[in-house]
Structures are given as C-alpha cells and as structure tokens.
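Appendix B. One record, verbatim.
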Amino acid sequence: MSLVSKYEELDRLIHQNQEEQINEVFREILKETFDIINKKIESKTTLNVNNPEEAAAVRAMFEYMLELWDEGAVDEAKEVGYDMVYLVDDEKLKEMFSMFVIGMLAGLSLDKFFEKYVNNEKVYKDVFFADFDDKIDELVIKYRNKFKKEFSKDA
C-alpha cells in the first residue's frame, strides 16, 4: 500500500477515533518513510513535494518531528528538522522546518510555539503549518547563529 493510501486510511481512523489502529498505521507510515528518506540520503537527492508519495513522506517526518518535540525528545526532533531542511526541495518547507527548529532552540514547548508564532489558519499544501507571525523574526535573530552552527554540524 502506498504512503498516500496509508494516510487516507489514517485520516479515516482519526475521524473514527480508533486510537490503537491509528498508532499502528502511523508506525507503518514511518517505517516506509524512513526507507524513502534513507534512499534519498544514499542517492544524494531531495524529496519532491510535487510527487504525492514523497509529499506524504515529508508530512510523516513533519508529524514525527512534532510528536518528538511534544514528548520532550527535543534533540531528536531538532535532528529531524535539520535533516528535512536539507532533504526537502521546497523553499517554503525548508523555511518551515527551520522555524520549528528555532522554536526548539528557544526552549519553547510545542504548544507555546504554536500559540505564539504559528498562523494555523493558513495551511500549505493541505497539511503544513508554514505561515508564521512576524514576531518570529525576534527568535530568528536571537537563534540564527546557533541554528547555523548546529545545522552545519549536521550537514
């Protein structure tokens, strides 16, 4: 089953509030996504968000990053964010992943970051929160050197 089909199944399960099945399908999505990511890293290519399967992989990594952050695994969430800045071929999504990493660098909780900096009224490509309040500029200025240092370490 394709990632797109698995996401359709996941969305259906979410509407039905089937928690156990939701977790199982999301684990399957992540397993398949990690295979796609590893192939992209090995071939030194990027994820094309205009390809539905690769867009679903980007969505999975975004959701995984948010889940890690929310659970307090901030270092792991930052690593996912840094990797995605490198792996995604879309400038708006590169910026989005960067802004979320900067929120982590600032020591904010996921909820506080969304509340203060994310415009969740606008969604990019149907699933990505890539629109930010102008107040985020202050965080970018404050944490850009730390971001660059950590990002270049990962690259």
